[in-house]
Fold peptidylprolyl isomerase.
Amino acid sequence: MMPFSTLLILSVIFVFVTGGKLPDPEVKIEVMHKPLTCQRKSKHGDMLLVHYEGFLESNGTMFFSSRTSGDKNPVWFTLGTQEVLRGWDKGLQGMCAGERRKLTVPPSLAYGKEGKGKIPPSSTLIFDIELMEIRNGPRSHETFRDMDLNDDWKLSKQEVKEYLKKEFEKHGYAPNDTENQVMVDDIFKNEDEDEDGFISAREFTYIHDEL
Ligand SMILES: [Ca+2]
Ligand SMILES: [Ca+2]
């Protein structure tokens, strides 16, 4: 059986090709390129790395390109957390690394009646977005499963400690046991709400306002 997200994407493509009406017509999604292989699809909470160009629909003016502006690097953001335009949160779900989409975003899901900077009021925007890479977000289910070494659906201090150690090594920092312990204690102070000495899946996925 096909995973639900695959079905969703296929139906979006189908609707686009046949010119039918989307059930939720707010963001128009056109798949410009789809890679042959797709290991995973983007979902709420994932970190995405994208290159993109933004255009005004009214006259085709390009107002931003990550390939030519600033440091010319692609941009990281967390999907579905309103870090970016709502049109992106809606339009970049279920996407494969290497995929390119064209999104047509109405003003209500972009910069609204006011506009912003180079974006005039009430502008519909067109984005050409290439997804370069998908990583687990800080609060993803996969991250929790990675950390939960004995699969009992809760994180002990030891498990969190192991995970931090691994992460530090991955990023080229020498492991420092004292610092590590302080971080673990801090994390438990914030995350272990019922103070049972474990971080449950619910405690982990609940996003605190202060984070
Ligand atoms: Ca555990
Ligand atoms: Ca707990």
